[in-house]
Design brief:
By secondary structure, the protein is α/β, with parallel strands linked by helices. 34% of the residues lie in helices and 28% in strands.
Amino acid sequence: MGELIEYRSNGGNASGYLAIPRSGTGPGVLVIQEWWGLVPHIKHIADRFAAVGFVALAPDLYDGATTTEPDEAGKMMMAMELEKAARHMSGAVDHLLSLDATTGDGVGVVGFCMGGGLALWLPTMNAAVKAAVPFYGALPWESVDPDYSQTDAAFLGHYAENDSWATLESARELEKSIRAAGKQVKFHYYPGCEHGFFNDTRDDVHDAEASSLAWNRTVSFLERTLQR
């Protein structure tokens, strides 16, 4: 359904995967990759959003690099230039809003793992982001400390009970901090699930029931928040 594209990013070029619904128009949603890179799973999620009526763009934050090895993925994540990633994401927001296919004056962002952390950060940098959905997102970079008073976005989070990376304790503290900033926020916690439970290419952690529930909650939230 989708295709690889190039778009402008603060004077330079960036690439990503764009999926447009069959209807031709819909609200815009950014899909932010896990630490594996812009792999087929992330492209498939963009296609799924398009299938339910959204214009979805997944920016390539690793400039084409991908991996299936956790150790390598961790190194790639920590080596990622955060300022460049921020430019690529904000450029993707601008590109989405420039498309005739995109309706409304704001977009949503949905991120997974590393991308979940970036989805928590992006609304504090770009006022056009009206909705943020982190899936087991955490912020492992010391230089990233979002100020949630600087956004009017609404937040919906999905976190796993047995997650040693984005732990339940840290997720609950994060939810409290967003609420304390006066923002609309609701985090869901999934009993018995592992980090990455939404990734249906990983049989070791995928949970079909929790994934279906999280997906339906996400679509409803984005439709409501972006006023589809």
